[in-house]
Every structure is written in structure tokens, then in C-alpha cells.
Amino acid sequence: AAIEKGGYDHFMLKEIFEQPQTIYDCLRGRLDAGKGKVILSGIDQYAQQIMNAQRIIILACGTSWHAGLVAEYIIEELCRIPVEVEYASEFRYRNPIIHKGDVIVAISQSGETADTLVAIENAKEQGAIILGIVNVVGSSISRKSHAGAYTHAGPEIGVASTKAFTAQLTVLTMVALKIAHDKGSVSTERYMHLCQELAAIPEKVELVLEKADEVKALAEKYKDASDALYLGRGYNFPIALEGALKLKEISYIHAEGYPAAEMKHGPIALVTETLPVVFVATKDSYHEKVVSNMQEIKARKGKVIALITEGDTVSAAIADDIFELPQADEIVAPIISTIPLQLLAYYIGVAKGYDVDKPRNLAKSVTVE
Ligand code: G6P
């Protein structure tokens, strides 16, 4: 087992550190940033139908559902197609309205999650086009899909998903770029820029991983917290949800993710001197708003841990602790901001002595409903 872990203490850590490579593998042969080309052979045949879809419905569970939420923001922004994101377990039981030609995107690491699988089977019968974004080649969901793109992250052993998530974000961004470019809903300049930004992700993720010890120090400082709040806005809102989920799964600390503005409608009541509040506060079009949300937490004496863009002195002055991330376009930034949150959950779980690769009560793939 030590050999399988490639010298790492746990599969989870190995898989976190594999991400520069897995994201690169996911992009390889598909994105040519220089020429501005996105080639996804598995969806070519349906590209026209996806482009002309009246709406896109994304179905997933768990971490994959969070990838779907990020994709909602990206697809609506770049492709101008309405997107809904649904928990597969809810969608399948509520007699959903599906029109012929609706595009359903099923996101799944394992390709075997029962709720996601049955939800797409039902939708397929009603005339939807199914696009599978799956990691495990030949899995049930990939076989049931009309079209698809594999995430190519390699086998994921850690029960809590890490590298599969960043690969999902990478593929979904490529899908959005391709549709937007074909459709003409994005300017050539922005499209070319985003292709380059996506191509630069593996090296930026590497830079973050080189600072893993900084996250370890934060883990030491906050490991005894009984609760934590994760806040973000826009593209980083789902990353706040994912950060909170990771902490819950791995360290058994109660954590909630929220859109930063929505905290005023509840979570702010929990803020005390001992509550760590993790902000995903990279410089993007929501940044000013996030800064004022951080100030609101500080005014109530909460502890602010902020993931910020390097050189952001404004956020640094407010936060109790910061972790600096390389600059990136807001569309691709979530892939980078995820990394320190995975590490934070990992190091806290390890510090508390838990079995981070196999958290209690959780299964790698939920094949029964
Ligand atoms: C389980 C796993 C999660 C995963 C979820 C969805 O809960 O523990 O890590 O996100 O299932 O799985 P899927 O294979 O469909 O992505």
C-alpha cells in the first residue's frame, strides 16, 4: 500500500498533489490555446444540438454537484443558455418537466451513482440529450449517455473527491468555451484569452501546492474549532460549498458553505470570536462585495481566513490569516481556489487522527439510493 501511495501518507494527499498532472492530462489533445481550438470528439456529433438547446439541466450528487454549480455560472455567462443544476435524487422523483431537445449534463466521478444514473435514464426516455462528464471509463453513466467527455483524472481512491472535481471543472470549462465559440456568444478576444488562462492552470496549481506548508500551519491553528463557515460569491460560491463539504467529510467539523451575501440571513448569528470564517475572496468582478462581507464578519469578531489573489493588500489588511493564490481569470479561478481548501480539510483530518482516506459512514460511490 505504501508503494501505491507513491510515498505520500494517504491517497487523498497523493491525489491532491497529482492535480497539476491530472488537469494537464484532461487538457491534453483537447485544448490548443495557441490556435484557440477546443476539440472534444465525444460531443462533436451533438455540438449543434447543445448550442441550440433551450436550456441545459445539470444533474449530479455530492462534490460533482458543486462542479455543476460552477458550470452553471460559466455556461450562462459564456453561452447565454439558461442552466439549472439539480440534485439527481430530487430531480428524478419530482416528475420533472423535460422537453425534447433539452440537454442534460450528468456529472459523476464513478459513473455509477444510482440517483444520477436513474435520473438520466428517465430523462432519456423523455427525449433529452444526455451529455456525460464522467471519470471512470466504460461506467454505467458513460454508457447511457449520448455524448460525453471523460475527465481523465485516473483512479480516485480517497473517498472524498479531490482530483476528479478539478478535472470536472476543467472539462466543463472546455465544453462551455467550445459551445460559446461555435455559437458566437463570446468575443474572439475573450475566447482566446480564456483558452490561454485554462492552459496555464496546471502550473498555477503547482505553485499553490508548493505552499502546502502554509495551509498545514493554518490547519494547526484552527483544528480545534467546533464549527466553520465558508463564504464566497459568484464563481467562488460553489467553491465555498465544496470547501465546507471537504472539511465535514474529512475532519468531522461541522461546516457550512454559503453565498457570502446570504450569510446575513442566518449564519451571521453564529459568528463569535471562536468561529473561523473561510472566505474565497480572489480578485474578480464580485471582489468589492466580498470585501465588505469580510468586514461584516470582522465587525462581529469572527476569525477571517481569506484566500486572496496575490498582492491584494485590501483583503490582507482585513483578514486574520491569508493564503495567496496566483492571479487568474475569474472563469478558471475556482480550479485554483479549490486546492488550499482540499489541503485544509486534509491537514485538519490528519491532525485529529482520522482515517482521511476512508471517512466514517461515507462510500466512494453510492450505488444504492
Ligand atoms: C459520494 C462520494 C463523493 C462524490 C459523490 C458523487 O458521496 O463520497 O466524493 O462526490 O458520491 O459521486 P459521483 O461518483 O457520482 O461523482
UniProtKB/TrEMBL annotation:
The keyword Transferase applies. The keyword Hydrolase does not apply. GO terms for cellular component: cytosol. Residues 46-185, 218-359 form the SIS domain. Its main location: cytoplasm. It catalyses: D-fructose 6-phosphate + L-glutamine = D-glucosamine 6-phosphate + L-glutamate. GO terms for molecular function: carbohydrate derivative binding; glutamine-fructose-6-phosphate transaminase (isomerizing) activity. One of its GO terms (biological process) is UDP-N-acetylglucosamine metabolic process. Keywords: Aminotransferase, Cytoplasm, Glutamine amidotransferase, Repeat, Transferase. The active site is at K364 (for fru-6p isomerization activity). Its EC number is 2.6.1.16. It is found in: Cytoplasm. Homodimer. Catalyzes the first step in hexosamine metabolism, converting fructose-6P into glucosamine-6P using glutamine as a nitrogen source. This is Glutamine--fructose-6-phosphate aminotransferase [isomerizing].
